[in-house]
Design a protein that fits this description.
By secondary structure, the chain is an alpha/beta fold. It has a single domain, classed as P-loop containing nucleotide triphosphate hydrolases (Rossmann fold). The protein has 15 helices and 8 strands. Strands 5-4-6-3-7-8 form a 6-stranded parallel β-sheet, with helices on both faces. A two-stranded antiparallel sheet has the order 1-2. A hairpin with a 2-residue loop joins strand 1 and strand 2 (51-55). It starts with 17 loop residues before the first helix and ends with a helix. Bound molecules: adenosine-5'-triphosphate (ATP) and magnesium ion (MG). Adenosine-5'-triphosphate binds at residues 90-96, 118, 122, 235-236, 291-292, 320, 322-323, 326-327, 330.
């Protein structure tokens, strides 16, 4: 692929410096270098003046993370987990959280499948795929044929004749190679999932059933047994699709803005989860994440106090700050954590929040 289409980056040409690579893996540059030497990891070199420096693509880093894992140098979960990003309020950074958390977990050596459960396909776009382009348009635009999105969860789950059956292997995308996060993309046809679910038996449990069987390797068309985390990105609507996602989940990630409406949405979610617990005798944990936080604004601080009261112990101590970096990363077609120019205020805060979330995931038995 080349740079013909603005907003779509060629991930194989994203080259991180050793310092940024080490930051992603959260190890020292020295540890990174000696690890490469010991394990005979080959990375590219780029000449800078008279010297040639090591450079890393995101795919290189995910591969290094996976080798580190195989050597027992990373932390592992007690069991595979399913997470949903959801809050019934638009534009609170749900998709930003899903995509970047998947990147973060990948850098920690965990295998992640992001499921785009929003027919808008924003997670799909954030990973560099335009679900609106036809195959011809993808090629005409100078993008590699792999960027063409064909099929979604609907085609893999085998739920209705509205979706022709397709094996996961034909639908799944691997934007950063085998060891980076994988993506089960969305396209507009996924809208029909709502109809398919409403006609299905046991409608609330269709996703749970699919993911559980897939994780046990019991589905020929969708072997999900290699994934540590399945992370489902949801639309802001209260639909059968989002309900299915939550029923299937161990934890719901709720990024919330510090305004009245987001807080109200969180309040409603709390109510909904109580009903859940009664109906299903199970209920996902909640992790509320303050987003687009503006420092020193008294109202924002009051909102934090309110949500902490609603979900005691379940609000991250770290916050995601309002930053132009998110928009800029989108413009260059990269998830923020793959954009080397991101500042401490954006990428640094993401890593802190995700560190807290990972600590929580590591506790789940
Ligand atoms: N901390 C932040 N500071 C500034 N802009 C942000 C921040 N986080 C996300 N954004 C921007 O806000 C917009 C909405 O983010 P995103 O798409 O992740 O929200 P969403 O909750 O998934 O939206 P929807 O409800 O439509 O699914 C995007 O343009 C994103 O780049
Ligand atoms: Mg979204």
């Amino acid at each position: 692929m080349n740079d013909v289409v603005p907003g779509y980056a060629n991930f194989d040409e994203i080259l991180f410096s050793p310092a940024y690579a080490a930051e992603c893996l959260e190890i020292s540059t020295r540890a990174l270098r000696s690890f490469e030497d010991e394990e005979g990891v080959e990375v590219r070199r780029k000449s800078r003046g008279t010297v040639s420096a090591r450079v890393y693509t995101p795919a290189d880093l995910f591969k290094i993370a996976s080798i580190r894992r195989s050597k027992g140098l990373t932390r592992t979960l007690h069991r595979p987990l399913i997470l949903s990003t959801f809050i019934q309020k638009g534009g609170t950074a749900k998709t930003t959280t899903s995509v970047n958390f998947a990147m973060y977990l990948g850098f920690k050596g965990l295998r992640v499948l992001v499921v785009d459960n929003d027919p808008q396909g924003d997670a799909t776009s954030m990973f560099g795929y335009d679900p609106d382009l036809t195959e011809e348009e993808v090629i005409e635009a100078g993008l590699s044929a792999d960027r063409f999105v064909k099929g979604s969860l609907g085609n893999v789950i085998g739920i209705s004749s509205l979706f022709p059956a397709m094996p996961l292997a034909d639908v799944v995308k691997k934007p950063f190679g085998e060891f980076g996060p994988h993506l089960l993309p969305a396209e507009i046809g996924l809208e029909d999932m709502e109809i398919a679910l409403s006609a299905a038996n046991n409608a609330d449990f269709r996703y749970a059933h699919f993911f559980n069987k897939g994780r046990k390797g019991e589905l020929k068309q969708a072997d999900l047994s290699c994934y540590d985390v399945i992370l489902i990105d949801n639309a802001p609507s209260g639909s059968l699709m989002t309900r299915n996602s939550m029923v299937a989940s161990d934890m719901v990630l709720c990024p919330i803005r510090m305004d009245k409406f987001s807080c109200r949405a969180l309040e409603r979610l709390a109510g909904r989860l109580n009903t859940f617990a009664e109906e299903y005798q199970r209920c996902p944990q909640v992790a509320a994440i303050p987003t687009m936080f503006v420092k020193n604004r008294p109202r924002a601080i009051a909102h934090i106090a309110k949500i902490s009261e609603m979900f005691p112990g379940n609000v991250t101590d770290s916050k995601l700050f309002q930053s132009e970096d998110y928009g800029k990363a989108l413009e260059v077609g990269l998830p923020l954590l793959a954009w080397q120019s991101a500042s401490e205020n954006s990428a640094g805060a993401l890593r802190q929040v995700f560190g807290e979330l990972l600590d929580r995931l590591l506790e789940i038995r």
